[in-house]
Specification:
Layout: H1 4-16, E1 25-26, E2 30-33, E3 37-45, H2 48-55, E4 60-70, E5 78-92, E6 97-103, E7 108-113, H3 116-123, E8 125-133, E9 140-151, H4 157-162, E10 169-176, E11 180-182
């Protein structure tokens, strides 16, 4: 028989740690380096739990971070630049209307859908995002990291610090692209 402190420990861990059985994944980011720009595409593969929650009218917010890193051999990789895209899904099951709002820092786009399938497909993918101009980068090896987090709720900062045990993020995952070279590639 297990002591009571082990049972209490496992119960607390089960409440705090998110479920690992969810089938949420990001496809490997596709990076196209043309003569002038770096273009990134990636897809978030949602699990059945998230898709059924969207169909049942639960609002979701996905925050995509697309970051460019420079590869260093002896030091941690250097963050060069990044873009943030926020997608908010609002569902009204009574009207059978789904609203998707996308904000990339400068442009706000709102789209309306009649079913959940095109909404989830459009909300969970980034296609042909122009990340940066190649001429602004030094010749070297780089990679792109795409990370996604889903927010449950937003607490004011002070309350968030006081109630640190209240879960604010539903999931947070990332995936790196293959390393690619720009220019001749200085080796460090």
């Amino acid at each position: 028989m297990l002591p009571a402190r082990f049972i209490l420990y496992f119960a607390i861990c089960a409440l705090i740690v998110p479920s690992l059985s969810e089938a949420i994944d990001i496809s490997e980011p596709k990076v196209l380096v043309s003569e002038k720009t770096i273009i990134v595409s990636a897809t978030l593969n949602l699990g059945e739990k998230e898709l059924s929650a969207i169909k049942n009218g639960i609002d979701k917010e996905f925050i995509f971070h697309v970051d460019l890193f420079r590869v260093w051999r002896a030091w941690p990789d250097e963050f060069v630049l990044g873009k943030v895209i926020t997608r908010t899904l609002k569902c009204d099951p009574i009207k059978k209307e789904y609203i998707l709002t996308t904000f990339d820092g400068t442009t706000l786009i709102e789209k309306r859908f009649q079913s959940c399938e095109p909404l989830s497909a459009w909300a969970s993918s980034i296609s042909e995002l122009k990340l940066t101009n190649v001429a602004e980068l030094e010749p070297d090896d780089y990679f792109v990291r795409v990370s996604v987090e889903s927010r449950l709720r937003r607490l004011p900062p002070v309350i968030g610090y006081l109630l640190f045990f209240v879960k604010q993020v539903e999931f947070s995952i990332f995936r790196d692209s293959q390393v690619f070279s720009i220019g001749k590639g200085n080796k460090k």
